[in-house]
Write a structure and sequence with these properties.
By secondary structure, the chain is mostly beta strands. The protein has helices at 4-10, 13-28, 239-244; strands spanning 40-44, 47-52, 55-56, 61-64, 70-77, 80-87, 93-100, 104-108, 115-118, 132-138, 143-150, 152-158, 164-171, 178-185, 191-192, 216-219, 225-236, 250-258, 263-268, 281-285, 291-296, 301-306, 311-317, 326-329, 333-338, 341-346, 351-355, 362-365, 371-376, 379-384, 388-391, 395-401. A 4-stranded antiparallel beta sheet has the order 3-2-1-32, with no helix packed on it. Strands 4-5-6-7 form a 4-stranded antiparallel beta sheet, with no helix packed on it. Residues 1-21 form the signal peptide. This is YncE family protein.
Length: 402
Amino acid sequence: MTTRRNLLMLAGAAVAASATAACQAADDAEPAAVRVPDVLVVKTRDGLAVARDGGLTPGRTGALSATGSTLCLATAADKTTQLDFTTTLAGTRLGGYPIDGRWTPRVVHADGSLVALAAPEGDPLKPQARAKTTIVIADSKQIRQRITVPGVIEPDAFTADRQGLFVLEWLPATAPDHYRVRRLDLATRKLEPLWTRDKVPVPAGAEEEMRGEGRTAVASPTGRVLYTLYTHQPGHQHTRDLLSGRPGNVHAFVHTLETEQNWAYCVDLPDPFGHSASTAYSIALSADGSLLFVVDLAAGALARISTETLKVLDVVKVGSDTGSAYAAASDKLLYLGGDHGVQVLDQAGQPVEKWTTPAVRGLAVSRDHQRVYLARDGAVTWRGSTSGEAALPGLTGLIRVA
């Protein structure tokens, strides 16, 4: 490295003066932004944003498609909402337009073609009582339809064929505290029950009713299947229990929603799952989609689930940690993050190594499985084929690699 002392030794006073000025200019200049190797979808204090080439797009209210390909972002202005569709990887604007009223994107179709918007009325997992709900279905060019249905309804996912929308119907509408998953037919505008895994419509009175606490989800690589983890559900009865007359008393389970064939099935989790604080849980899917991992970081327990049979293969003891739990998987490894760092495991749940880091605020693996990203407040770090760190002011979480 050429230092000021080396320059003084190699040249006369005139050269030294010039070098001193150059060094002072370099000290006063802003440090060059560190380039993040991949495009990241992140959370900021202002909403969803994209980290690309050392920069961070402005945070906005929005929703991301299950495959991570498309962002639908909204900006409120007076009595209208500006809607914008962009690709996450290239940042290409696909379209956008203003719509009357105040609306929030809730779910985007897996292929990015449609968005369902609802009025921004507080927390969708703690909705306010209301007699009816209006949902706007839109694409990147125009509004397709406005649907008003009775009760407290929150969009959850589109059907694969775009003919329906899975929704959470909160009950009772006058004081909502639990819900059931139903299908809204976009043609008839009617709410329908889901099907069982045997492709039989769920009979009246046998639909599962759930509470919103501890609800977190991950989608299959194609976005066709949505796995949602529910915790703190004492006394819950699954559809199969209601049909058979068996008493239910499960504290945690994974609700599996197949968006092409419209069926749902719940995978029960054994003790100790369901007893820790909801923030202690996280869920991740292996790169090939064959294994689903559920971790209770407070209890130090990891459940491995086969997505083919929808059965728990085993529960493995892992290191415990405090704070919010995060999980991500590559083609070979599983990463679990908490307040005190990241545990690296093989996919059998056996320890490989431990990284001591500041409190983790998100984990994600690059599409080529060569790098794992760790978010912390205001920065992101990556390890693997390359390593580095980039300051991203305002960063509060990491969603995925685009």
